[in-house]
Amino acid sequence: MTHRYFGAKDLSDRIAVILPAAGSSTRFGGGRNKLLESLDGRTVLARSAAAFLSRADVSLLIIATRDAGSIRTALGDLANDKRVKIVAGGECRAQSVHAALSHVPADVEWVAIHDAARPLVSQPLIDRVLKAAHEHGAAGPALQVALTVKQAAGPLPAAVEKTVPRSTLWAMQTPQIARRQELVDAFASCPIPLEQITDDLQVLEMAHKPVWLVEGEERNLKITSAIDLEIATKFLSDAASPF
Length: 243
Fold this sequence. Notes:
The protein is of the alpha/beta class. It has a single domain (12-140, 172-235), classed as Spore Coat Polysaccharide Biosynthesis Protein SpsA, Chain A (Alpha-Beta Complex), CATH 3.90.550. The chain has helices spanning 44-53, 68-75, 93-101, 123-136, 180-188, 202-206, 226-238; strands spanning 15-20, 38-39, 42-43, 58-65, 84-88, 110-113, 138-144, 149-152, 160-164, 170-172, 176-179, 212-215. The strands form three sheets. Strands 1, 4, 5, 6, 7, 10, 11 and 12 form an eight-stranded mixed beta sheet that branches. A two-stranded antiparallel sheet has the order 2-3. A two-stranded antiparallel ribbon has the order 8-9. The N and C termini lie close together (10 Å).
């Protein structure tokens, strides 16, 4: 089923989606790849991919990985979608994104980068980010930080340097959407090693490009540990998911 999406009749540009999937899943434990784990009968990766492949505005979905065979198997029938392209990933996330970006055609203006381990992303959330990106140039979803944050020179034990006001702190989610060319230019001029990049929109910030935040969703969690998989399963049992 193809879903409606923001401003369909007003969008003159297609969207390419990048799913970085070259990580080692070390925090998941047990030597298992979290993207291959089953989530209510479908792999984590397949759910993440399906959220975008269900959209009429998505013309290309690129998965950057170091294990193409396992990724293709995890996609199931989605691997046969002609919009899916599997490419070699890098040693870190930013390297994988950069590598995937080189496969996006020049005539595709907008690129959405999404954590392959965020399988419960909703269509309204994608729409919100896309709308903000069109209005401001680049955007991503975020949740306000709820915990008190202390600054200290770790590792612990260490003395507290200060308490950081949390009213201005936001925890980033994905998808993050920006213009392809601006991402290409920002990567080319990135002043720090790519392994130090922790967020996709960070390269645009360092290039002094505007980046806006929209409201994220608690449900749009990232699978990092086995507990996260249990929480995602609970989300699915509480509300039917189209994916």
